[in-house]
Amino acid sequence: MNRDQMKGTAEKVKGKVNEALGRATGDRKQEVKGDVQQATGEARKKAGDVKDTVKNTTRKPG
Question: Computed from CA positions of residues 44, 49, 54, 56, in that sequence, does the dihedral angle turn out positive or negative?
Answer without folding.
Answer: positive
